[in-house]
Amino acid sequence: MRGLRKALVVLLSGMTMQTAAAQDISVDFVNASEPTLCAEKDNVYIKLISPAVSRFVITAEHPSYMGTIVADRWAPDFRNCDMSSDPTFKFEPRRVTLYETEEWQLVGLTFPSFWRPNQVPVRVGDKVENGLHLLQLWKRHQERAEEVLVLYPADGYWRARPLPPAHLRWSAYGSSFLLGPIETTGRPLVDIKSIAFDPVKKSFRLDFVRGGNATVSLKELDAEKIEVDVAVDPVRGAEQPFAALRSMYVMEGNSDVAQIAWRAKGSQAWTQEPVMAFKKASGVELWTGRTVPSRHNTSAPDTIFRDFK
Questions:
Q1: What is the pLDDT of residue 284?
Q2: pLDDT digits over 88-97, tens only?
Q3: Which of 47, 54, 237, 242 is the most exposed place for a label (fewest CB within 10 A)?
Q4: Phi, then psi, of 275 in degrees rounded to 5
Q5: Which of 86, 5, 7, 98 is closest to 40 using CA atoms?
Q6: What is the number of other CB atoms lying within 10 angstroms of the CB of residue 222?
Q7: What are the residues whose beta carbons fall under 8 Å from the beta carbon of 34, sequence distance 6 or more?
Q8: Left if phi > 0, otherwise alpha if psi is -120 to 50, otherwise beta: which for 180?
Q9: Does residue 23 surpass a pLDDT of 70?
Q10: Pairwise CA distance, residues 239 & 255, whole Å
């Protein structure tokens, strides 16, 4: 009898997983990347397009070769970079703590200069700060603070990284992601009207200048990966992305992302290509990352988009 019950549980569990998979929305993945010789330019641009998606998950996980890294590399490489024509707006630099407990801290920074002039109000409880260029979410881990999630309010760029592996005690950021109504003004961006942080839920509520909103909630964090849940108003319009990956590729050994893989709906296998050779595909899951170490941000995580609903 117990064996029958166990078999029934396994069967029902499998049926539940199949039902959930059947509900996943197939998304178009479109490559709008451009070649570059500058390792500090985000030339990789993978657009995620669907007018139906209102929920999905983004995961940043350590690369498969993480255990082989002996000496990490994260220093910037400005060879072959000409940024003299980039727009620059001046600000008074400052640092402010928006929220703090023994385990968590949210810090805001204003840089001496930034490429956009707009100032986005950031609210935590009754406290509101304007003109912050970077929000840093820190987690206390093994007697030190680890920065795990950042948002640039003025252009909508996010970065995430897991807690560091024990043998390194630190890991680098790499690729960025955008979510919401993405537009291009000099470079791809999301115009944010306001931001509110919920300390209890560890979530960010974003209201967009173009209308609509999104909520980004911390779902899971450990020394392997960080996951965030995204709830976003569907983005309408032909070829209008609701999310995107931004990264850098000069060559495989000098990149923050070198490979892309996707899983088509109903498929039992992944398809993988070099990121600059990839054109377009549709699927229910997208992976971007590296399979061999790079001299640029060697320990930076892979990025996965999945569970499109």
A1: 99
A2: 999 999 999 9
A3: 237
A4: -60, -35
A5: 86
A6: 11
A7: 43, 45
A8: left
A9: yes
A10: 27
